[in-house]
């Protein structure tokens, strides 16, 4: 009995002492393109759960590639990429699809479907996952309300401004209740006012506990917050500042 | 409601979503978090049909290329099947008779030959069809108004005297025909067995040609459907890319394209069946205006109930198969 208690106590202590796995973990990641140009060279990175980080770097430094590596669009030549404890490079097919359901991805060019309304675009995520219409409707209203587009639910993307389209893509990213949001230059096509609005939304999502990773080359955007910045330079990832 | 109000409200709603229930912090339960219940695509038929319709709308005129190819294939298959069944029906109709036709030489005496024929066993009935009677009957069948005019055109009656002999048993027909052929004055002996053999042989030949044509057209239809679906997939590449990024599985993405292929097959089958019905009606009208002799064939041309059902079922079956194979080939290429 005493031994059992002792083992349980040790296990409990171990459990307490074990840190939760990082949300994103890069270990010795190298990624080169066929031309020989390397975007990552033996890069290491650790982003904890609930963090908000910016990733910055010159154009062509590989920020988008970094994002693609995280959501499995690209695979590393070497090294390990773990997201939420899962080795992404080992995922393919339907396993990769199921993994992506846990992410919310926001793109610079919004990637909205032109022939579908905003409501359809946002609900499309759940529809494509086979979620029932009633559940989609239940989630659609708060998601659109959060981004302030409930009155534009029936509009088509071309009827919306760039800022509104990006907010629609944020609604699409969050409707699946992801634990990680990846925003690849989300303000790249927006004016300052809309960019700040998008940033405010992302901060709100971070407040909910969602891990947020934003690539940007907009220094004003970075300076407007106290979030840590990771610089991608010459294939290396360097954490520049801590909050 | 102001921004803070929205946020509070959204947070409350967010907690109500299944993934977040019982979770102290969003993402904490990510390892073992509840996935959306995976459901069979067939429980989401409205979604799949909606996506299929969307694809068809994007396909535009390309759809018609696929449907028309399937239509041609299935129309020819339907006509071929129907003809084959009708010829078989005709064979059975005429095959039930036991008649032997004996054609005499122009210089032979009908009475002499008739006397010799009467001495043969296994004959139940003999009917003499004189060449004048046969000529009048033929002209009547052909619809000639005046025998004299026709005679003038051909200068003389080209027909010969004929004896129509009926055997007592079908087994005796070949031997009886052989014996009749040896009678002096007999030029030619024809019996239905021979005609049936010829007709059956012709039917088999036509079936083989039909099979080859259907095989060739099936390959063509599969290729056209495959190319059409592939083009539709390309026009919907952006949709597919977004679907992949938001976590749609391959089946979920590509099943609507397979449905489109099946749709092409069904549309082709429906149009082909309609064309066959129109053809049948026209043929019946044409036959009704023909001579009594040809009208007599209609009984043999009539399809049985089973064949009437089997014809559209075959069209739909092959249409669906062709659509399925074509679309799966296209989708496999796209997935790869």
Topology summary:
The complex is a heterodimer of chains A (243) and B (336).
Chain A: H1 2-17, E1 24-32, E2 38-47, E3 52-56, H2 63-70, E4 78-83, E5 86-87, H3 93-100, E6 103-106, H4 118-128, H5 133-146, H6 162-174, E7 180-184, H7 192-207, E8 211-215, H8 219-223, E9 229-233, E10 236-241
Parallel strand pairs in A: 3-8, 3-9, 6-7, 7-8
Antiparallel strand pairs in A: 1-2, 1-4, 4-5, 9-10
Helix pairs in contact in A: 4-5, 4-6, 5-6, 6-7
Chain B: H1 3-16, H2 45-59, H3 61-95, E1 99-104, H4 110-118, E2 123-129, H5 131-142, H6 147-154, E3 162-167, H7 173-181, E4 186-191, H8 192-235, H9 237-245, H10 250-288, H11 292-295, H12 298-301, H13 305-335
Helix pairs in contact in B: 2-8, 2-10, 3-8, 3-10, 3-13, 8-10, 8-13, 10-13
Using CB atoms under 8 Å apart, which protein chain pair has the greatest interface? A-B, 48 and 40 residues
What sort of overall outline of chain A do the alpha carbons produce when their principal axes are compared? globular
Given the helix and strand composition of chain B, which structural class is it? alpha+beta
Amount of beta strand of chain A: 15-25%
Instruction: Give the SSE order of chain A as H and E letters.
Output: HEEEHEEHEHHHEHEHEE
Low-confidence stretches of chain B: 16-41
The span between the termini of chain A is 48 Å
Number of strands of chain A: 10
How are the strands of the biggest sheet of chain A laid out side by side? 6-7-8-3-9-10
The total number of structural domains of chain B is 2
**Average pLDDT of chain A, to the nearest integer?**
84
